[in-house]
Amino acid sequence: MHIEIRDSVDGRSVVAGGRWTVDNVAALEKAVGRAASAAPGAVSIDTSTLETLDLTGAWLLRSLEKRVEAAGGQVSWPAGRPGQLAFIDEAVTRRQTEPEEDEFSRSIITLPLRTVGRLTLDARDTLLDHIAMFGAVITVIASAILHPRRLRFPSVVRHVFETGVTAIPIVALIAFLISVIVAYIGAQQLRQFGGEIFVVDLVTVSVLRELGVLLTAIIVAGRSGSAFAAEIGVMKLNDEVDALRAIGMDPVEVLVVPRVLGLVIALPLLTVVADGMGLAGGALLSWSLVDITFTQYVERVNEAIADTTFWVGIVKAPVFAALIALVGTMRGMQVRGSSRELGRLTTVAVVQSIFLVILFDAIFAVLFMELDI
Amino acid sequence: MEPVISVRGIVNRFGHQVVHDGVDLDVMPGEVFGIVGGSGSGKSVLLRTMLGLQVPVAGSVDIDGKRVTSASRRELLEVKRRYGVTFQHGALFTALTVAQNVELPLAEYYDASPVTLRELAELKIRMVGLPLDAADKYPAQLSGGMTKRAALARALALDPVLLFLDEPTSGLDPISAAAFDRLVLYLQQNLKLTVVMITHDLDTIFRTCNRVGVIVDKRMICGTLDEIVRHEHPWIREYFHGERSRAIRERQ
After folding, report:
1. How far is B200 from B38, CA to CA, in rounded Å?
2. Quick one: A89 and A156 in the same domain?
3. Span A226-260, pLDDT tens digits
4. Does A35 share its domain with A180?
């Protein structure tokens, strides 16, 4: 592509030649800018040496014409006005009238006000959605007492397998490693007082009461909370949820309840696995760091725990499971329209369920303290 | 005249299932070529093969004299800039507005200023008959007909000479479908495009296509519309001489 700009007393003559195509758009754009800048009254655009002109080139030639005319100049085409320009004229004049934007929504002064309002409404909607989802799940479960078929047992089993059984390796590994870390640091600190034997108490109580269930819940929130949100979100995008409704099946009953029940069953079982692996890790470290034999370790564990220690941990698991499953499925249901929404809501599901798990763990801690357990 | 697309002996297989067994086909410049075939006959697979998205087991595809089936990544990219595609369900990027969808290929390849990008995108959007306020809408906010038009605008972003349309009028009411056919013809004539379309819509075939290729028995039978309508093959007879098609031909 090449362009020549010559100014004379008669006005400016622009010779456009070569390939005016999308491949040269960046160079053409600059050339047109030069040709249009400070244009005198009359501009002639000579296109006789033009080899190829595609729509992008034609649009740029036309924008040169328009800019000269906007500045009050006259454009002449010695070699004729290329046909593509007429085509663009036609396409552009077919334009439809644009609706006027609402005055209120455009004003920048009201922006903070509108933002606060929107956020407030969003927060209210989130809260209402949570309550509505919880209510819908309870309704289905309650009605299932009369019609057990509504619980969709095969589906529940599948979710127990997917969220529980397949999570065993990672949960076991992490529980083992965490108890090793606790035992290791504990042994180092306690050695200063000559109380190495209390490493066993430290590991046992912390794993059974807190770490076992909390870590398991956090892993499951990351694994299954995101999976729930993504699965249901994609179904929403594919209109599968609407299809279910159209067939007359309740999406809460078909999609949400089996996931909630599945996780409520799976998470306590996973917690038992985590507790066992945690104690095993403690046993290994006690033996290698402070020379406590396995028999001594078991005796010490029995002395360290009260009757309730194990149950205090395990009782939290179903609650955490319900939180994770409800948040994940609800966020999935909220996906609308775009793939970006899907990603955003999956992230929200994981972050929110981890936050809720830790919040409820704190509430439980206070509760158990008050109850003296 | 050299064909724009030349397909020779394409074989596609998935496991033991043979989809194509020696498909030949030529598309001449300036043609509107319709590909017809029963459901599951491998129309979309053929399209994907022509686009270079799927490597066939055997055979070759040439576009503009360049061999798509054995091209390097760079060469393939060069070919891809010469064609535009619309997919069956639009395949607009849902996270981007319509204008951003149209700008995306331009912005990816060329170094134009944001103003020019936006202007070119708006031109393409108006060209396909969408109102300008559709430019800042997201795909989820568009109706079915508007989605098809927006997909066409994106396909035209790089000023292609070759346009592939996968079921361009499926899911549209007859009036919108007719309007879309007219739009395709209008653009094809004014922009001197070669169009290859997959379609089930007999109305669309009779309205727009110069030549038709039918996939039957894992091969392709090509010919002008008249030749194909008179063809002896039982499936083609059934397709073009069923009740529906008789009514359409009488009307036209």
Report:
1. 8
2. no
3. 999 999 999 888 878 887 787 777 888 889 999 99
4. no
Please give the tally of structural domains in chain B. Answer: 1
Nearest by CB to residue B158, choosing from A22, A94, A340, is A22
Interface predicted TM-score (ipTM): 0.72
For residue A214, what pLDDT is reported? Answer: 95
Q: What is the DSSP string of B124-139?
A: HHHHTT--GGGTTS-G
Residue A50 within any structural domain of the chain: yes
Per the structure, the complete domain to which residue B119 belongs is given by 5-251
B40 touches chain A (CB under 8 A): no
Question: B82 in contact with A at a CB cutoff of 8 Å?
Answer: no
Please indicate, yes or no, whether residues A74 and A215 belong to a single structural domain of this protein. Answer: no
Contact (CB<8Å) A338/B133: no
- As a whole number of angstroms, the distance between CA B204 and CA B212 comes to 12
Beta bridge partner(s), residue A74? A42
Closest to B126 (Cβ–Cβ): which among A21, A91, A336?
A91
Q: Which domain holds residue A236?
A: 151-370
B110 touches chain A (CB under 8 A): yes
Angstrom distance (rounded) from CA A39 to CA A30: 15
In this prediction, residue A97 carries a pLDDT of 47
Q: Does the beta carbon of B191 lie under 8 angstroms from any beta carbon of chain A?
A: yes
pTM: 0.67
A99: which chain B residues are within 8 Å (Cβ-Cβ)? 133
Does B116 contact chain A (CB < 8 Å)? yes
Residue that finishes a domain, picked among A47, A63, A93: A93
| Count of the separate structural domains present in chain A | 2
